[in-house]
Automatic annotation (TrEMBL), chain A:
InterPro entries: Bact_StressResp_Reg, RsbRD_N_dom, STAS_dom, STAS_dom_sf. Coiled coil: none annotated. It holds the Pfam family RsbRD_N. The lineage of its organism: Bacteria, Bacillati, Actinomycetota, Actinomycetes, Streptosporangiales. It comes from Planobispora rosea. Residues 153-264 form the STAS domain. This is STAS domain-containing protein. Keywords: Phosphoprotein.
Automatic annotation (TrEMBL), chain B:
SUPFAM superfamilies: SpoIIaa-like. The lineage of its organism: Bacteria, Bacillati, Actinomycetota, Actinomycetes, Streptosporangiales. Residues 2-113 form the STAS domain. It comes from the Bacteria. PROSITE patterns: STAS. InterPro entries: Bact_StressResp_Reg (IPR051932), STAS_dom (IPR002645), STAS_dom_sf (IPR036513). CDD domains: STAS_RsbR_RsbS_like. It holds the Pfam family STAS. This is Anti-sigma factor antagonist.
UniProtKB/TrEMBL annotation, chain C:
Transmembrane segments: none annotated. This is Anti-sigma regulatory factor. CDD domains: HATPase_RsbT-like. Signal peptide: none annotated. Pfam families: HATPase_c (PF02518). Residues 34-133 form the Histidine kinase/HSP90-like ATPase domain.
Amino acid sequence: MTVPVDAGRRRIEELLEEHEEQILGRWFEIAGTMSGGHVDRGGAAVPFGEIYRALRRSLTGSEGGSDLRGLLAELSRSRARHGFTPSETASVVFGLKEAVYEIVEADGTPEALRGFIWFSRLVDEHGLFTFETYAAARERIIADQAEQLLELSTPVVKLWEGIVAVPLVGTLDSARTQVVMEKLLQTLVETGSEHAVIDITGVPAVDTQVAQHLLKTVMAARLMGAECVISGIRPQIAHTIVTLGIEFGDIVTKASLADALVHALRQSGVEFAEARSPRIAVRTEAG
Amino acid sequence: MDRVPVLKLGDILIVSIQIDLQDQSVLALQEDLADKVVQTGARGVIIDITAVEIIDSFIGRMLSTIASITRLLDAETVVVGMRPAVAITLVELGLSLGGVRTALNLEKGVALLNHLDGARLAVAPR
Amino acid sequence: MTSSGELPINGNGDVVLVRQEVRAAALEAGLSLVDQTKIVTAASELARNALVYAGGGRVRIEIVRNGVRAGLRLTFSDDGPGIPDIEQALVDGWTTGNGLGLGLSGSRRLVDEFDLRSAPGEGTLITVTKWAR
């Protein structure tokens, strides 16, 4: 027994039209049991009717299913926000198959049965699409957060006229170091600062790549006409740098941010007065 | 081919590169500068690259060469206004511009030349 | 230029043109300013190499996609004498011309992917790719 695919498809389309109300009702019930009886949890209502009609338009109409995709994407996003898992969302879509199958079974024609295979494949595609949308939305959120974190964690501060500093805190990875360094160099240009202090007191460890990035920044700053001092190198980091054989060359390093600031001030021509013996201020209460 | 103009301000020659450099323009600039330094007896040369979007190894080598040539002619060369992206790229490329002095901008470049000149006078036997 | 195109490299003026076209394409591919500068510099080095060592060549500029990431791919090809020892050609400071020998090795450091195919007498094909971060 062979039935042309087209005939099967046509029969399904007819059934979808004739039994719209019945299918919608069943779909709602099935979806309810599938997602543990709380299809409408927290207001994330599924617009069954709209999706159903968009699906029918995508079969017959000329707009190629972009309406339907939009609705499914929106469904996936809104349900994700309300804490549904992507499988729960996808199974809501898959529920439509069961609802339609009941109608097909009742119809009993070979066309309908043949067409159901085609329809089932179509619904699977749409179900998987909600999955993809969910994953893409997640990825975007993670990327945005990573970027915001990067921006927040890299302040470049002015210490003195012509002296800026970047206090680095936390683990440095290659990407973050690169962002910090670009920002530092940009600040040098904008503020006309000839001295920069890179303070790594708050950095627990560095690897070869990060150390290389630090070095490259110092070299890039020199090419631009500015000098960098690295301060706050912990003993473990000094150990790593020497063990890895990274050549720090003639780069100035200081124990603390304060020492680095003194160095930078001296370099920019500020003179320090000798420390005087402590003065005792005597104040007399005059009448 | 576009020629890069060389301006004279007191005893300093100023070159501001505003175009995307062709190799011939670069070579011509090298010659023009050497001639001008001798002609004017300039003690300093400032090359302003604020507008330059990229420096490859050819242009970088030219900057080093100009610095070496003018030094032989008793004039210091200062390259000013290198953009951060250009500096990062040069370092990655492996170019260090040996022998070239740098400053953040034109004003600081002039200050550096004056400072160098002062130092030179100070150590010169009287 | 939309997403792909080919430019000839036959004279010094073409090197400048290649830089400008690569810059425009890098902007379109969404590369950061630093990454734009890096790929344009690499393009300048490779275009000059094609000119100096092979007497000319051409470059294909295309915007490529890898999942959600966009990138810029440049393919330099020439019909010159080719490179006999590729390993050595990629060493810093190695040159048969009168340059600094940073063209190939330096360009490789400026991009994310670098592929060089060459044999004596068969010209050289270099493909470089830079991905948007």
